[in-house]
Amino acid sequence: MEDSAAVAGLLWDRWLPAAPRRLIAEALPGGEADGRVLAVWLAGVHDIGKATPAFACQVDELADVMRDRGLEMRSRQAMGPDRRLAPHGLAGQLLLGEWLEDRYGWAPGRTGQFTVTVGGHHGTPPEHGQIKAAFAHEELLRTPGPSASVWRSVQDELLDACADRFGARESLSRWAAVRLPQPVQVLLTALVIVSDWIASNPGLFPYFPDAAAHSDEERLASAWRGLDLPEPWSAEQLDCTSAELFGSRFGLPDDARPRPVQEAALQLARDMKRPGLMIVEAPMGEGKTEAALAVAEVFAARSGAGGVLFALPTMATGNAMFPRLLDWLDRLPGVRGQRHSVHLAHSKAALNEDFTGLMANGGSITAVGVDDAVALLPHRRGGPRRAGAELVAHAWLRGRKRAMLASFVAGTIDQLLFAGLKSRHLALRHLAVAGKVVVIDEAHAYDTYMSVYLDRVLSWLGAYRVPVVVLSATLPAGRRRELVSAYAGNENMSAAEAAENTAYPLLTAVVPGGTVVQCRPEASARGTDVEVERLDDDPHVLADRLEDELVGGGCALVVRNTVKRVLETARVLRARFGDDRVTVAHSCFVDLDRAAKDSHLLKRFGPPTSAARDRPLDGHVVVASQVAEQSLDIDFDLLVSDLCPVDLLLQRMGRLHRHRRGPGESDRPERLRRARCLITGTDWTTPVPAPVRGSVAVYGAYVLLRSAAVLLPYLDGGPQRPVRLPLDISPLVQGAYGSEGMVPDGWESALKEARVLFDKLRDDQAERAAVFRLGEVGRPGRPLFGWVAAGVGDADDSRAGRAQVRDSRESLEVVVVQRRGDGSLATLPWLPHDRKGRRRGGLDLPQEQVPTSFAARTAAACGLRLPLQFSYAETADRAITELEQLYLPAWQGKDSPWLSDQLILALDEHCQTRLAGFSLRYSPLDGLEVTRDHD
């Protein structure tokens, strides 16, 4: 009890950011001093429930000693299953409540808001039914008869001693009138959990009698040194111009100036009454990421936030953002030269070389508490660092439930959405975000299902007063209103008026309970006029057109809505242009090949000022899926796209003439100096356009028809009516998603029919998402009883965990290896060398022993998510059964942390295999191709 209390005091003083400390302090009459005392006292009493018959009976030898002192109890066997009605957390909650009523005269209705911290310290606050059941079994708390008074005196004596020892006695009477806000209850619960986990680590706090020779102060100091938790970031209030700030943080030339959106966002962050929500709507390539980081620095300095969470749509965008975050941190005052914790938050972070470099500096504290053990790298304080500041992936902060507690995190949006999912130890996720500035990128990319969770998370972030920056190039006005209302906690006219603003670029700001403020910065001077035209959906027609367009050279991007269409198109184009002039990019590549593919695209098609010195001169076509919409800064001369939602089409257009190449685009082939987008993937000859089946399956007919409708004036207008970027972005998006959309003549029936299906899908998504969604923030003083009732249990970034916050079937992931002709297994032969020059291709993978760590890690880096065909229950079950036939105990057991519990997909020497009625073929050029056996 003393260890937990002492740890809580150190966490409050040295680790908890100022923002959550202030939130707790504001709820108490004695301010921050009271907040510290309350946290320490609750951590000290959290295990009082162990002083009960239900708990003490578990070890007969110890129970007999207690019986000799008058503390009678039945044996564990005699108590039977009823003993589980009073787990020690719940028992402690009841005992503490009784003690507060008896000793300090608290009203029974006021105790729960404090005692729920004790009841929930194992991750799940008790439900009302559980509380009632425990009260009905008094014998679990105190043995009836003469012994009951002995039990009561012991329990009271312990609680009296804790009140004195932890300095709470003078405060308890004053706290009786307090109404703790629910966010404060959550933070206190999380702080007690963290304190308990640290104090329960025998490596830090040795058991008696090992440490008997040392004083409590010596034990605590030694444990804290061993834990070596990095302190939170303390952002500095800076008095500098926007040019000075952006120049110093992002390494800009001395004569460079921030873009208007960046300057306006920074000024708005400084002018707001207090940090709150800021939505930045601006075109692609306007530097929204840099604007968000600059705003985050200002918000952190003003709010007391101790870190930043950057949430992105996919692992690929998370990986792309991570080195940018590190570079920013390396230049950031208050971080440079100091030690801070950093985390890459997605399921394959351990395969990211930037992140593993930080892990090497992160220490070797053993994982404790309920977390699964994790493989830790040795502590090398003298080893290489990724950034100038001492940024580490701290060992204790690598557990799956603790990782988000790191100060600086880049990861998938799932990590944020989990804060809205009723799950065990949810309080830790709330503690993680309550002390940060949260940046949400690509806000337009999240469907109704995910938005249900996001809106609820935003409402809790508003209650915590967490500053939030939302970024989007193509945000519908209705969605803007929903985000504002969710965060600000009101449905006032201000939010409605904000939704009607069609200005672009646009900055929208609001504080919880406040009025919306908007400003319209100018777009940067450079714009692009994109001519759009129809193209028949025939790959041979496409090949003919590209042959004409690329006669003088140039680079074309063809974006398809499904991987199947990508591969079908690539086959036709390769037959026309040759293999070396056609590149394929989609999501069905193993992880290492996907990373190599991204690097290849950036090298050949990236900005002219970057390392993209290998831009093809003789004409080249990249055929890609939606992976081309996000994260990659690539630039093409011509765009061909399947019809898709207009906001995504605009994202794709952002890859067209993205960078200036010579005066008047003179460095591009003459025929391609005008930006043009050819729209295909639909039958344009019918009275109402008929999108191809695959596109309808991905996006739905209604959204596609609405997109086609708003594009009609541009399609019919020819070169005289181009899409003007960025001027037309907002009108197109609002026209496609607004309630009063344009309905072309003759489309009424088709749109009405499609709308019925669209509304049904949205309602279904919202209903299903609400099942496990966290409730709204309750009124102050209302205990967190049942806070995560009927939840999902543990939630993490596994396949099943992601499926809980995304409307997607649980996908199968496999590790891909090659089986040689002699039956031996090896890593895929073409894999590139790693950054240290070590060979990764064709490494032997012995089947009877654990592979070397390097070989196992290389194999794990060849993870592949199987496509949708394998997500249907019957096919998935059959696939798993077949995959489990290749069971290698040395790999898939506990001795190989990289390959433990992984499904292994072994390809033959020709990189082919069969699985669950499908033929699979894989190549580093085309990725995975799946066909039915009878196709």
Given the structure, what is the number of helices?
Answer: 35
Strand arrangement within the widest β-sheet reads 4-3-5-2-6-7-1-8-9
What is the count of β-strands?
Answer: 25
- Fraction of residues in β-strands: 5-15%
Largest sheet: 9 strands, mixed
In angstroms, what separates the terminal alpha carbons?
67 Å
Q: Shape from CA axes?
A: globular
Question: From the helix content, strand content and strand pairing, which structural class follows?
Answer: alpha/beta
How confident is the prediction overall: mean pLDDT? 88
State the helical fraction: 40-55%
Runs in which pLDDT lies below 50 for 5 or more consecutive residues are 362-389
CA radius of gyration: 30 Å
Folded structure, characterized:
Helices cover 42% and strands 12% of the residues. It is built from 35 helices and 25 strands. The strands form five sheets. The chain has a nine-stranded mixed β-sheet with strand order 4-3-5-2-6-7-1-8-9, sandwiched between helices. A hairpin with a 6-residue loop joins strand 16 (682-683) and strand 17. Helix 2 crosses helix 3 (31-45) and helix 3 packs across helix 12 (182-199).
Q: What features would you highlight for this structure?
A:
935 residues, alpha/beta, nine-stranded mixed beta sheet, seven-stranded mixed beta sheet, 42% helix
